[in-house]
Amino acid sequence: MSESADKARDALLDLAAQLVAVSTTVEGTLACRMSDRFPWMLALSPADQEACATAVLAAARASFATHQPHLAIAELTSWRETASAIAAGLGKEPVDGSMKPKPSNARSAW
Q: For the chain, N or C: smaller number of CB within 10 Å?
């Protein structure tokens, strides 16, 4: 097994351990229990916390069923990066379009 495959398997097993711990508690919602194990989820809105919990759990199930660790790891990473961006204040300001490329005044040679 390659080193990257070993790392992917280890990451999936880490996630599995966290999900088993979450599933053994019955108090609170799935999102509340998962945010206990993954505190970065607290940067998400309550609705996004629920969506994250559901998506990560579904991706983990798919990973285990297909022996494809990247499914769960990519889902978890995507949500964690989203939470980090929100915590950094990204996404709060509306886009004003100033990032659009300016039209060139030069005439085309064609």
A: C
* Cα–Cα distance, 30 to 106 (Å, whole number): 58
35 and 52 Cβ atoms separated by less than 8 Å: no
59: which 2 tokens? 């991706």
Q: Give pLDDT, residue 49.
A: 96
Q: Which residue has the tokens 């100033």?
A: 98
Whether residue 15 contacts residue 30, with contact meaning beta carbons closer than 8 Å, is answered with no
Q: Say how many Å lie between the first and final Cα of the chain, rounded.
A: 56
Q: Kindly report the pTM of this predicted structure.
A: 0.73
Residue with tokens 């966290």: 18
Per the structure block, which two tokens stand in for 70? 């990247």
CA distances from 51 to 22, 41, 88, 105, 107 (A): 16, 11, 20, 47, 50
